[in-house]
Prior knowledge:
The chain has about 325 residues and is mostly helical. The protein has one domain (about 5-310). About 70% of the residues lie in helices and about 0% in strands. The termini are close together.
Amino acid sequence: MLARTVQNVYWLARYLERAENTARLISVNTNLLLDLPPGLALGWLPLVDMTGNRSHFDARYRHTDERHVVQFLIADRDNPGSIVSSFEMARENARTLRDVLPAEAWEELNRFFMQFSEQLPAGLSRRTRFDFLKQSVLMSQTLTGMLEGTMSRNEAHTFMMLGRNLERADMSSRIIDVRSAQLLPEDTAELRPFDTIQWMSVLRSLSGYEMYRLGPRSRVNRTDVLEFVLRNEQFPRSCLFCLMQMEQCLHGLPRNGEARNALVTACRFLSGASLGSLDQPGLHELIDQLQLHITAVHDTIAGCYFPARAAGASQQQIQLAPDTPHSLALFN
């Protein structure tokens, strides 16, 4: 299988996951702001920080209000992390993979993108935004389920799983870092109920609230939420679960030594962290280190299996043009 093909499959999965996560974040933030007391609203700028595109936003927008942030995250085609850009790049990757993917998946993604583009103004309106974002999440999950239920377990599927899980680990760590940094002071007794609401928003940002409540601890608190979203080995959006899934995927690939070593190092770092004793600066430092490990995993995968031009590509950059000529064969 050509390196170009598996690269496009990898990025297809990442872009679908990115679109879903971004849509979910905007919806959850809207509901969170309604729950907070007057004067304690967290605003919209933290969502830009979560996506890692703050410098891009500052260069293009003067205001940080709801209208501009929502425009940037949903409809700005110059923002590589926006929902429209993510779906557009996913569609472009899928177009080049029609001999690898089920025909129904390409047709569904193409149909949805045309519908999404037509209804884009609805995503910018407060009145219709919730339904618009809900459809975006549903479409991403539908495509993910369709691909998971119909693709042969070959190299293309392996790289799809690698891309999906790396994007989930990356976004989960960003959500934890930025959202937890905005939480209310712990020593303010009258605000403690609202602090719980915000930790619930961390779980809901990852669609993990119900799964958290099924665990041995049903009450929402800082330490247990961090343990759940960072290190739970059963929740599919926890960082450790995603990294472990990637390590399993690499078993069947050739020349996997460097990538597996990077994953083992990342898992050991995360497993050995003392979450209960971390203050907020300590948590921020831990997430920074985890992000470096995730970046190292991506770089080793790209350097080993993708065209040489992509080896040093950052996770937040737009992928190389899908039609870039390259005849490197991955598997003999």
